[in-house]
TrEMBL record:
Residues 158-344 form the RNA ligase domain. SUPFAM superfamilies: DNA ligase/mRNA capping enzyme, catalytic domain (SSF56091). The keyword Ligase applies. It comes from Actinomadura namibiensis. Keywords: Ligase. It comes from the Bacteria. One of its GO terms (molecular function) is ligase activity. This is RNA ligase (TIGR02306 family).
Amino acid sequence: MSTLRVTAERLTIHPHDNADALELAQVGLYRAVVAKGQYRTGDWALYIPEGALLPDDLIAELGLTGRLAGSGRDRVKAVRLRGELSQGIVCVPAAVRDVDLATAHAEGRDFAGELGVTKWVPPIPVHMAGEVVAAPDLVPWIEIEDVKRYPALFEAGEPVVATEKIHGTACAFTLAGGEAFVSSKGFSAKRMAIRRDPANLYWRAVETHGVPEAAQRIAALLDVDRVAVFGEVYGRGVQDLAYGADGKSERPGYAVFDVAVSADGGSVRWLDADETARLLGEVGLPAVPRLYEGPFDTGALMELASGRETVSGSGAHLREGLVVRPAVERYSPVTGGRAIGKFVSPAYLTRKGGTEYE
């Protein structure tokens, strides 16, 4: 999931081809359906992204009572309105009508707290949960931002690598000082590890796929003392998309999407895409499918994010999307962290009966 921020944005307005009373307000590369005439190109408004939970008073003010997602009808989710994909909410609530939104944008002001908007956190199913312990040496996974929200994340023509984004649950594994730590994305952010339990989904995945042994080999090959391996655990019973695997079996589906290392207490180094692929092949760990390598092209990558999955080899169902990174790892001043982003398939966002466990 992406970072939740409610920000002031300058709008570009486009016509809605299928509805006379509606228009599309563009923020970054996102488009949200708005009432016709409500805004003009150049106007400033707040943008509330997908995955936000809205308080009841704001829902009522925006006229969205009963129209949002989730059991509480309070979660912002992508929808199709008259055939157009609408992502997020564009609005100017009463609380900010006297605010200079252009200045707020320049200052990077986040209105989430002021409006009572919080981030939706998916529930944790029993088979993914477990007893947790403090793990200060564990390397946490990071939030991957949507390129549609941050279109300047990559330079046009910059060499990039795009891999398939698998809809499972992220598993963070760290080998540090000879000790193995296993965690979920959410727990790892708190530097908490899941105590070993053969019934736990994450532990089953790393042990049956030989991740601890592979991490030891990586440590020896690179002469480091801390190795973090990040993989997606997937299959039936994990999420609604199974990729032909069985997450309830002894050996769930598992594919690595990132590796990071450090030595002697130094800073964490994320391996370049080619180095990661080479090492995974050498130590025998499965990798997420690589779907593209070449110059960054927004349109081409947005198109490639859709289609059928390639993980199972049979195109069993739709594709979630892509994860894009530079061919050579670098810092991004746009996000203040790694230059890494995602493109998500519109069909995935609007599918029926989808699950979003973290």
